[in-house]
């Protein structure tokens, strides 16, 4: 049974802001990790990103990249990868400290400045993050990752209209890029336009190899509209059992923040 959309609320806004922060995703071009046991780093757009590492592998990756970073703290690839792993582990202050050192060593590198901006945003320093991302951009050679990253930061400071202009500029450069579509979808969550959010998140989720958080956020948006069974199916589809359960648990946790889990289940029983 379908339930009406939730009314706008402070709690929904807080939830959406947290998701928008996470939805920076790979917008600034996080380094990727190969499937090899050595955990070698590549800079290709494709492949498995650090953000797709199973939770059980994060501790090992932290140790591996931490040791590599300690040996060569000025290395761009190692530093960016270590910072991304630290963010996944929730160690945002340490991630920012790593990216500060990498940025000092590579002051004019756009990838580094973009990742530094991401670390600043994750640590809550949004004005400095915005300044850093804008400094990395060049008007004659606009980078879609930087446009999307700037949009995500603007969303977090309440400038969603300006953010969406940037997302669409980024899509002009990189059509159907899932990270941009995901950020655009989360922008609409911030203004409680869940139908538009679902549209863009569905488009992103259909793209092969998309970050698993896109599917999680799509499931959440569907769940917030009252379609609980569909949301759970989206959260666990085509995943191995352990990851499926992790995604289902994530969905329950997020909906519980809105006090919607029990409401939806009760309505299903009554329906």
Layout of helices and strands, plus pairs?
Layout: H1 10-22, E1 32-33, E2 41-42, H2 55-71, H3 76-88, H4 92-105, H5 110-122, H6 126-136, H7 144-156, H8 160-173, H9 178-190, H10 194-205, H11 212-224, H12 228-236, H13 241-257, H14 261-270
Antiparallel strand pairs: 1-2
* Helix content, binned percent: 55-70%
By CATH reckoning, the class would read Mainly Alpha
CATH superfamily: Tetratricopeptide repeat domain
Per DSSP E runs of 2 or more residues, the count of β-strands stands at 2
Strand percentage: under 5%
**CATH architecture assignment:** Alpha Horseshoe
Question: What quaternary form is this?
Answer: single chain
Using only C-alpha atoms, the radius of gyration works out to 18 Å
Q: Please give the alpha-carbon distance between the first and last residues.
A: 6 Å
By helix and strand content, what is the structural category? mainly alpha
Q: Could you give the order of strands across the largest sheet?
A: 1-2
Which overall shape is indicated by the principal axes computed on the Cα atoms?
globular
Quick one: biggest sheet? 2 strands, antiparallel
Give the SSE string: HEEHHHHHHHHHHHHH
Number of structural domains: 1
- The low-pLDDT segments are 1-10, 21-49, 261-265
CATH topology: Serine Threonine Protein Phosphatase 5, Tetratricopeptide repeat
Structural account:
The longest helix is centred in the first third of the chain and has 17 residues, at 55-71. The model is unreliable at 1-10, 21-49 and 261-265 (pLDDT under 50). The chain has a single domain (10-270), classed as Serine Threonine Protein Phosphatase 5, Tetratricopeptide repeat (Alpha Horseshoe), CATH 1.25.40. The protein is built from 14 helices and 2 strands, in the order H-E-E-H-H-H-H-H-H-H-H-H-H-H-H-H. It starts with 9 loop residues before the first helix and ends with a helix. A hairpin with a 7-residue loop joins strand 1 and strand 2 (41-42). The chain is mostly helical and 271 residues long.
């Amino acid at each position: 049974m379908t339930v009406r959309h939730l009314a706008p609320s402070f709690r929904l806004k807080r939830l959406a802001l947290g998701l928008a922060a996470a939805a920076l995703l790979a917008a600034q071009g996080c380094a990727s990790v190969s499937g090899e046991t050595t955990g070698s780093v590549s800079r290709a757009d494709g492949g498995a990103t650090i953000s797709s590492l199973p939770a059980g592998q994060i501790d090992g990756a932290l140790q591996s990249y931490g040791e590599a970073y300690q040996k060569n703290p000025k290395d761009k690839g190692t530093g960016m990868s270590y910072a991304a792993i630290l963010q996944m582990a929730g160690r945002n202050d340490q991630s920012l400290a790593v990216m500060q050192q990498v940025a000092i060593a590579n002051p004019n590198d756009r990838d580094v400045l973009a990742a530094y901006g991401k670390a600043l945003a994750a640590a809550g320093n949004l004005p400095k993050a915005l300044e850093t991302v804008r400094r990395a951009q060049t008007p004659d050679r606009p980078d879609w990752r930087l446009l999307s990253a700037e949009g995500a930061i603007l969303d977090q400071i309440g400038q969603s209209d300006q953010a969406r202009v940037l997302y669409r500029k980024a899509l002009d450069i990189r059509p159907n890029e899932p990270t941009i579509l995901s950020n655009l979808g989360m922008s609409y969550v911030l203004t409680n336009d869940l139908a538009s959010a679902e549209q863009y998140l569905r488009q992103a989720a259909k793209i092969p190899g998309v970050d698993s958080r896109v599917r999680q956020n799509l499931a959440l948006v569907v769940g917030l509209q009252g379609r609980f069974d569909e949301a759970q199916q989206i959260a666990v589809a085509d995943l191995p059992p352990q990851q499926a359960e992790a995604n289902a648990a994530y969905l329950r946790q997020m909906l519980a923040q809105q006090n919607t889990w029990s409401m939806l289940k009760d309505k299903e029983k009554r329906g």
